[in-house]
Each structure stands twice: as structure tokens, then as C-alpha cells.
Amino acid sequence: MENLTGKKLNELTDEQVMAELQNGAIQAFDIIVFRFKDRLHNFLYRYTHNHEDCEDLVQETFLRVYRSRYSYQPIAKLSTWIFTIALNLAKSMYKKKQRMTTFSIHADDSDPDSRDFDISDTSLLQDEELHLKNSMEELEKALMQLNDEFREVIVLRDIQQLTYEEIAEITGTAMGTVKSRINRARIQLQELIGDYVKSETF
Amino acid sequence: MKINQHQINSEKREECENSEKYSDPRSHSSFYKNRNDKAIQSISDRLQNLPQVNVSSGFDQRMAALFALELELEIKQKSASLLLRNSKINLPDIITDIRKEFS
What we know:
Chain A has about 200 residues and is mainly α.
């Protein structure tokens, strides 16, 4: 087997990089981690709203990807396969912890590397900035109030920008169900954050 | 990520066209439907514009350490499996206390 350098691996598609990993190129794993770590974190953060759990889940997802590398078939996109693993892990973690119903937008106060969207000196905020900050917080809060089924599809669609087909595959549901859930989730979100949206939309 | 932007755009158009099908049954009139569609579109745009929440700075190091452990475990498992399949291979035990060898 030809041993590809990191630079050459970088030029390959996700599926080709995975094929290299299946052929024993360990460096391919680094490329996969580099390409997916932030996307996975961003997705899982919107699902869990807890940085610590979220990073544990991202790490565990990558380990599972490595362990089950031979079971991946290139008929599906690598991203779809990885997101499926991540979602399943997140679901099973939260089933165990039974924490899905108790959340706080500031649930991660102990995290020294807190990445909340705080703006340090609120007294200096202009009206627009304050409004933007508040509306983002409202949206994050509303997102966490959706039920799991609605939240996962709307995050995959509107934040991760995946296609219906990919979402259907990841969640294991029919495409019609995905479309309907996305629409109902948006309606629920609109109802939850009504005031902030209405003031800007109408 | 390679997003099929064309597919996403056509799906977004389809979402607007089909929104009546899934929309709130309370909003019957075209005026309310229009308001509803706009608000839903705004929600979608807002979600797209939420700030990206990336991994922390120490993530790569922690991941590398975990992966090193994983590789070590894999090598141990492969070695154990090899020994199991080849009963003729006999490896000496690890010397835990070298003083015993010289006493």
C-alpha cells in the first residue's frame, strides 16, 4: 500500500480519507478529526447545551469511528455516518443521565473555557447589539425547549445545513416525517421567541 | 464539508411552497399565512446565523492522548489474539523485580 503523506491526504474527499484509514493509514484519522471536530461539536452543543458532555461525546464519536472503520461502506457519505454515530451516542448518554428535561442556558458555569456568547461590559452595548445578544440567547433557550425529535432535525437542517435525505438517514426516519418535524419545530420556535422575531420581521 | 448548495436551495424553495401543508391550522387567511411564512423563514435564517461553538483549545491534545491509548489497546488485543491462535509461541514473563535475578 502506498503511504500517503498528510498533505496528499488533505486533498482527498472525506470518503477517500476514510478508505485510506481502512487501508491502515493512521494519519487519515487526524484528517477526519480535523475536518469534523468543530462541526460535530457545534451540532452536539445545540443538542446537549453542555460543553463538557459535548467534548466527551465528540471524542467518543471519533473513537467509535476508528473502532468501526471497517464497517463503513462508501455508499453513504462519511459525514452522514459520523453524525449518525454522534447522535446515537448523545441519545444514549442522555437516556442514562436522564438530564434532557433539566437544562440551563448557563449550565456550564464551572467550565473555565466557557464559550457562552457573553459580551463583557453590557453598559457599553448599543441597542442593536443588546437586542442581537438577547435574541440569540432567546433562540438558544427556545431551541432547548423543543423536544428531542424536533431539536435534532432542526439543528441538522438549519445549523448543520444537511439535506433532507441525509437527515432522514441520520435519524432513521422517513423523509416526509423529517420535513414535517422541521416545519413544526420552526413553528414552535417562532411561538417561543415570538416577540424578538416579530419586532424585526414585521 | 461539501454541501450540495443547489440541492439545499431547491429544498428551501420547496419548504416555502409546502409550508401551508404543515403550517399552524389557526392561520387560515393569506395575510396570516404570509406573516407565518416570513417568521418561519426568519427563524431558519437566525438559526443559520447562530455563532459556531467550536471545540476548546486543548481538544486536539486530549484527542491525541485518547487515540494513543486506543492504538495501544488495539496492539495488545492483536498480540493476545495472535498468541491464542499460535500456541507454540511462548513469551517469557516480564521481570518485575530484577534483584531476584541476581540474588
